[in-house]
Amino acid sequence: VASKDETTESSEDEEHEGGALGGLMSYMKQKLNISGPQEPPVKVLSSLDVDGVVQHMKSDNCRNIITMAGAGISTSAGIPDFRSPESGLYNNLQKYNLPYPEAIFELNYFRKNPQPFFTLAKELYPGSFDPTPCHYFIKLLENKGLLLRHFTQNIDTLEYVAGISEDKLVEAHGSFRTAHCIQCRKLYHQNWVKDQLFSDHIPSCTECAGVVKPDIVFFGEGLPDKFFQRLSSDFPSCDLLIIMGTSLTVQPFASLIDNVPASCPRLLINREAVGESDSVMSMLQNLMGKSGGLQLKSPHNTRDVALLGDCDDGCLLLAEKLGWKEELDELIVAGKKNGTDEAKV
Ligand code: OAD
Ligand code: ZN
């Protein structure tokens, strides 16, 4: 089982077919007797823009949509993401005196010093935030029978709150719903951990006094089985991949984008362009007959579209162009009403 790992970010967008690199690539292909991709991808989109994607979504060829998300879909709910320069969590952890920001989610560090994680967990504890229009757009895809699966890296549970069915959801980085003792693996439920946390105790095992850690996936831990099962069952039949609010820097989640069929359109909705492979990775993957990363700026792009900006705006624009605006608004209003009713109870 692959463990969660931070990748190095891609540096420049060198055109991999040209220049010295291109020469090296043809040389290696010849030497290794490797041919390129077997079948050239079919162009599915009528145009490489949002209208092309919308036309595809309206057609009978688009029945299985997979959505992939990260912290950026929840920032408008008031939850910080991790890597945005000013507001990102990793830039705001000074008070925890960590050796480096990611240590707060590292198992080895947690074994030695669990306090920073629990202080943060208390601050960001699920239950105090409302889903965003983007979450409701994903729910609308489910209502329309178009959502094959939603893969999320988020642990804020806002997908559940928005009503997305458990069956449609893959929580790739786990959740707070269960917890385990890191020594004897005894199972604990969310409420027990929550009580400990909110009375400012480090949750410790009633059997062996080991620390009890919520089942969110730390760096150095394996992802849930469901992630790998759904990856192999769903991605081969994906007709459209929508990637939202993620920097695509954490593996193995980031490489999901390379698991859809070669012709499957991929729409990125994010504040910045991400997921474009660096030239060396592209070259290696090309050699193996695979494409690596989004091809947003490549002249060979046949299927990737970027809608740069806020996830909510992107989803509202899609809904409008699809003629779903009213239905989306209804879901948002109903969600707000539920939230208010719950608050009253
Ligand atoms: P990041 O913080 O790395 O990336 C968030 C991305 O969303 C960035 O590219 C932002 O520019 C973008 N963004 C932020 N707000 C947005 C908005 N309203 N609309 C559109 N785009 C927006 O977050 P992740 O990719 O989710 O692991 O990070 C991956 C993993 O790294 C997390 O699951 C977490 C962390 O270590 C944990 O274990 C908790
Ligand atoms: Zn124990």
From TrEMBL:
Q: Which Gene3D superfamilies match?
A: SIR2/SIRT2 'Small Domain (3.30.1600.10), TPP-binding domain (3.40.50.1220)
| Reactions accelerated catalytically | N(6)-hexadecanoyl-L-lysyl-[protein] + NAD(+) + H2O = 2''-O-hexadecanoyl-ADP-D-ribose + nicotinamide + L-lysyl-[protein]; N(6)-tetradecanoyl-L-lysyl-[protein] + NAD(+) + H2O = 2''-O-tetradecanoyl-ADP-D-ribose + nicotinamide + L-lysyl-[protein]
Stated name of the protein: protein acetyllysine N-acetyltransferase
Q: The Deacetylase sirtuin-type domain covers which part of the protein?
A: 43-325
Specify which residues bind NAD(+) according to the UniProt entry for this protein: 71-75, 81-83, 153-156, 246-247, 270-272, 311
Copy out the cofactor comment: Binds 1 zinc ion per subunit.
Q: Which family does it belong to?
A: Belongs to the sirtuin family. Class I subfamily.
